[in-house]
Design a protein that fits this description.
The chain is α+β, with helices and mostly antiparallel strands. The protein is built from eight helices and 19 strands. Strands 1, 2, 3, 4, 5, 13, 14, 15, 16, 17 and 18 form an eleven-stranded mixed sheet that branches. It binds zinc ion. The site of zinc ion (ZN) has 7 residues, from loops.
Length: 387
């Protein structure tokens, strides 16, 4: 049946020799071409690879480098992150805009009251506040983000250090137009702003042409599903097994339902894990910590407790309370809470320009759930607990 289709293969020896010679020549040519043109093939099989690669790249959603969440387009992430200092005195609550950052730092100030640095990149916040003053550690924290640093003043030493640092500084004292006071609250808890107002004020003075690189690695959906499975399996283990009198029982993972951050009572924080969303719901001073406009409870996809060495800075506030200097440069212990599990970690930040890294006991970076990460800077004299 092939005879009609391939008449040239029929016939005597001379035809076979000619055919073999032609085949050899073709093979030689093909080899030459493949060798001289990388990625090019006579048969075209390689030609499909770039297409496949391009298709795979297209299929990968564009994500925010700071929080790992999908974004609509490049403009949402090709811009300068914004870091805003937000108060957490009882009079400052409920705050506005704490549901929109990619990363939030909580740090201790005078008299046991905490304050936030909220870092915004991929989402807009129409109302952010109350905006408060800067502290020395803020420079180290904001620097690797290349952030537009937004605050309302600070101690003379902090302001001098800020100026010397070269950070894009949008202090309200110099940039009054980027902020406004609201009537509903009293100073100093009434200064507000928005991401668009901050950008329109800061973009001209501090143009940004770089690419934002992020501090974290993120878990894939598959890795998250595996963690939830491990958690569910460990939770199901019988109480008898867990209270093994021989004390030999070792859980395969450390299941976490609640985290207690040891700030003083006015700012004491609890997070409760919600396995249906994979998020930690935030409570402050015994009540749900809500966002002012939406009245929705704030939640963290990841909670990192970073133990820092606290030293008196010599800066005293109006009530005579000493402002602690938080040692965020160097290294120390950390606890990473992700997907309802605890991962013991170490943190390290060797220079102002570097992000803090959080590595597990094997020295590998701890991967996080895509979403908002709350970093709790806790003095090493305290200890977060969980159950
Ligand atoms: Zn983001």
């Amino acid at each position: 049946m092939s005879s009609t289709k391939h008449p040239s293969r029929r016939g005597g020896k001379p035809g076979k020799v000619r055919a073999a010679a032609v085949l050899l020549a073709v093979a030689f040519l093909v080899t030459l071409i493949s060798l001289s043109v990388p990625g090019c093939s006579w048969f075209g099989s390689d030609e499909k690879k770039p297409e496949k690669k391009a298709a795979a790249e297209e299929a990968e959603p564009l994500t925010c480098p700071l929080c790992g969440l999908p974004v609509e387009g490049q403009p949402a992430i090709d811009r300068r992150p914004i870091a805003v200092k937000i108060g957490n005195d009882p009079e400052a609550r409920p705050q506005s805009g704490l549901d929109k950052p990619c990363v939030v730092f909580e740090e201790l100030t005078e008299g046991g009251i905490t304050r936030f640095m909220a870092v915004y990149l991929c989402r807009e916040a129409d109302l952010i506040g109350p905006v408060r003053s800067a502290r020395p550690a803020d420079i180290e924290i904001a620097f690797p983000y290349n952030a537009l640093f937004c605050h309302c003043g600070g101690g003379p030493d902090t302001l001098a250090a800020l100026q010397a640092s070269g950070l894009a500084d949008l202090d309200e004292m110099a940039w009054t137009g980027a902020y406004w006071r609201i009537r509903e609250r009293r100073a100093p808890h009434n200064l507000y702003t928005s991401t668009s107002r901050l950008r329109s004020a800061g973009d001209g003075a501090f143009p940004f042409h770089g690419e934002v690189t992020g501090p974290f690695e993120f878990l894939t959906d598959k890795e998250q599903a595996k963690m939830e499975k491990e958690r569910a399996r460990e939770t199901k283990k019988t109480a008898a097994e867990q209270s093994d009198p021989t004390g030999t029982y070792t859980p395969s993972v450390t299941v976490v339902n609640n985290i207690y951050i040891p700030y003083q009572s006015l700012c004491a924080v609890k997070y409760t894990y919600d396995a249906t969303t994979g998020r930690f719901l935030r409570f402050v001073s015994g009540a749900p910590h809500i966002e002012n406009t939406s009245a929705a409870q704030l939640a963290a996809d990841n909670v990192i407790v970073q133990y820092v060495t606290e030293t008196p800075s010599g800066v005293v506030d109006v009530r005579g309370a000493n402002s602690p200097d938080l040692g965020v440069l160097g290294s120390g212990r950390a606890q990473v809470f992700v997907r309802g599990q605890l991962i013991d970690a170490n943190w390290q930040k060797s220079s102002r320009a570097e992000y803090t890294t959080y590595t597990d006991n094997a020295g590998e970076p701890v991967k996080l759930k895509p979403g908002v990460t709350w970093i709790e800077l806790v003095p090493a004299s305290g200890q977060a607990t969980f159950d």
